[in-house]
Recover the amino acids of this structure.
């Protein structure tokens, strides 16, 4: 399954509307074109905010700064798990856990219980 | 790509048909290039035209050393290696030709290869050496790139006035001297 790339897709859309090439944007940001292109394609995380000026980026492509920052933050906070070598059970658990955390359908008690298991603690003695 | 390598077989296209396709791209996207002899904005074609007209995503990505570009009709992605992109930006003729070549694969081949791969789930392959030129996708993409970067009418204008047509075509259209000379020969303007 392809992972969501809302930041890169939106960046590409805005850049093309502004008629800026990948090379022009990369130069403006002081990064290589291949790095810029990788971020746009979702192969790398959105640019780190302490290293790249989102203000310059937004101004250069006529984008809304808050929108770009918000999409970048959301994407950077995403947790990725490599399941290529995982067995069926592990995959099933990982996907189920991700889904339940994402739709916030776990109760606080269930989250606590999962945390106890992950931290290697047995059930609290009754 | 060498003549011994395997390529997907594509619908035959004559040189004249390819010239019409490249002219159409310029009419749609950069009509000035069909009025005054000038360098065609091939990076803009690669990035903007292919996106807006064919819904393709263009990217710059690291590739194995002998690869310079790639078109994937299923994911609708067209890629060039960093050195090719940067060369094309800097006006290097050979790099510009490669960007034009990959763009040619999108314009000429993407939809038919996508149908073969997605609907029929197979694609017929052949050795380039066994194919007539007009059935060879690499030959077609090369002709497309040459005609996109050096529109026939504009080359004729330059050749009619220049003392050194190869140098003039190479300089005006930002192509290599080899590509300029070959284009003049193919258009019957040089022996």
């Amino acid at each position: 399954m392809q992972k969501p790339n809302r930041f890169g897709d939106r960046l590409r859309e805005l850049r093309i509307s502004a008629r800026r090439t990948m090379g022009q944007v990369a130069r403006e940001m002081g990064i290589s074109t291949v790095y810029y292109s990788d971020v746009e394609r979702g192969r790398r995380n959105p640019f780190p905010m302490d290293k790249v000026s989102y203000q310059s980026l937004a101004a250069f492509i006529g984008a809304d700064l808050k929108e770009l920052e918000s999409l970048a933050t959301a994407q950077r906070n995403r947790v990725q798990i490599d399941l290529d070598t995982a067995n069926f059970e592990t995959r099933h658990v990982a996907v189920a856990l991700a889904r339940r955390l994402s739709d916030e359908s776990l109760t606080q008690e269930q989250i606590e219980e999962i945390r106890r298991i992950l931290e290697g603690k047995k059930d609290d003695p009754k | 790509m060498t003549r011994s390598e395997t390529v997907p077989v594509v619908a035959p296209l004559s040189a004249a048909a390819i010239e019409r396709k490249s002219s159409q791209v310029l009419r749609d996207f950069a009509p000035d290039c069909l009025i005054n002899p000038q360098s065609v904005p091939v990076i803009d074609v690669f990035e903007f035209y292919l996106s807006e007209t064919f819904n393709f995503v263009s990217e710059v990505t690291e590739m194995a050393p002998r690869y310079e570009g790639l078109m994937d009709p299923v994911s609708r992605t067209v890629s060039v290696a960093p050195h090719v992109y940067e060369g094309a930006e800097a006006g290097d003729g050979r790099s510009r030709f490669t960007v034009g070549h990959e763009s040619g694969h999108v314009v000429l081949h993407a939809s038919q290869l996508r149908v073969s791969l997605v609907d029929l789930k197979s694609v017929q392959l052949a050795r380039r050496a066994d194919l007539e030129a007009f059935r060879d996708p690499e030959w077609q993409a090369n002709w497309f790139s040459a005609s996109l970067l050096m529109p026939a009418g504009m080359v004729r204008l330059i050749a009619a006035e220049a003392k050194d047509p190869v140098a003039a075509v190479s300089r005006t259209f930002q192509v290599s001297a080899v590509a300029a000379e070959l284009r003049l020969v193919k258009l019957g303007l040089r022996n």
